[in-house]
Design goal:
There is one protein chain. The chain is of the alpha/beta class. It is 29% helix and 25% strand. The strands form five sheets. Strands 2-1-11-10-12-13-14-15-16-21-20-18-17 form a 13-stranded mixed sheet, with helices on both faces. An eight-stranded mixed sheet has the order 7-6-5-3-4-8-9-19, with helices on both faces. A three-stranded mixed sheet has the order 24-25-26, with helices on both faces. It is globular. The N and C termini lie far apart (58 Å).
Length: 525
Amino acid sequence: MATGDRLTEILDARGKAPGAAAFVFDGLRVDVADFARAADTAAAFLEAQGLRKGDCCAVWLVNRLEWLALLFGAAKIGVVIAAVNTRYRSADLAHILAKSGARMLVMEPGFRGIDFPAILREMAASAAPRLEKLCVLGAAQGDETRWPTVACPDFLNGGARPATLSEDAHAPLLLFTTSGTTRGPKLVAHSQTTLGRHARDIARALAIDPARDRLLAMLPFCGTFGMVNVLGAFAAGAPVHVMDTFDAKPALDILQRERITLGFGSDEMFRRILSLTDEPKPFPHARLFGFAAFQPGWRELAAQAGRRGMALHGLYGSSEVQALFSVGPSDAPFEQRIEGGGRPVSPQARVRVRDLETGELAAPGVSGEIEIDAPSRFLGYYGDPAATAAATTRDNFFRTGDIGHLRGDGTFVYETRAGDAMRLAGFLVGPGEIEDELKSLDGVADAQVVAVEIAGQARCAAFVIPRAGAQPAEETLIAALRARLAGYKIPARIFFIDAFPVTESANGVKIQRTKLRDMAMARIA
């Protein structure tokens, strides 16, 4: 372990520049000394509530100073933080509390129409057998009678220090949730070393300069995408402007007023921001903005943003290897820079691709499952050694479940999730290839392609959203595709719909491809 890899060491190193800006929350500017005091007060508060090394505290908050103070404070005394998505409702909340064994829940009293106590009341007390108390921001007590309730103190104006420091660089510190199954999401455990080292790698790889750069944090801290860009900027010493939750108009205002140079979000976030201004170059200070592509039309969005002075970079990451694991290089051609994947931020990271047919490692250009070993790799799935073993190779690489290929120049390309990849006529095909061709045809606004089985054969089916006023015909589109694609890539059917089914996650809105697949099979039947 290199010196300075722990989060607490990063905080100590930042403290050597007193007066330097650390965060801006709703106009409140918090310098490094203020934040260090808040982290100490948070640690003392956790300790006063009876939490000790190895105990878990669940955090169910929007982006606030308290969230970050609790994380750094927990690192000081060895407490584990379980991040709870603010979009979660009673069943999801119960699963996280039970799986993590949380002894305390720090929660919002309410936020923008979300009644957090009401959601908690819908959960049976027996669903969280280890939960002992609630900590509600700004409230000494509430109407919840099943658990004692304490108020969250003002960490910023506190002065308490923990009585006992119990740091463990390699023990679990932060639990992210990953994709859910029928039994609920798994908890991905990271230590303060995996978090801190990755933060330093981000700062170095993105050449973040505290004298030049300012980050807009508009993603939820409860997800890896929202947390790691904040930690990276903090490690570099760049001020972080925090939004409690994303809203396009305030985001636009902050980007322009504060001359923001760095930002990360979903394609839909950037699309909404850009739609609010007609200025040809609305962000003259933009330097590097990374985006995750969750919606159709992301290539067109990247081209539009580039013409308006905001160069978007494709990214890759997951809860297991952390977001911003890799970024599209600035010196790469546009088409390569915006693709998912890119160059790992850590020089120690190793990325390989395994051929799904042969089980052997694939050569550059050959698609297969992406496997990763890197300093940012998770400790394992919390309390689930069987799932950890299933996701790990014998030589300790993480099986991502993503399909992609190596380029041969130290970069790689993410193509699709393994469950979305289609095996057609013996060939592995990413749906994006066919979707791009469909979207280039007259009358097509957006398209999604899924695998289906027809008469025992693997085929694909497409869903198309027509352009306003257009009425494209299935036969016409299929005929056009036949002139441009191999026969096995031609959709067996094309269905027209008004909108794709979507679901909201901590990082953005994602299309429900499984639901589309079910819809296609039902219509074909």
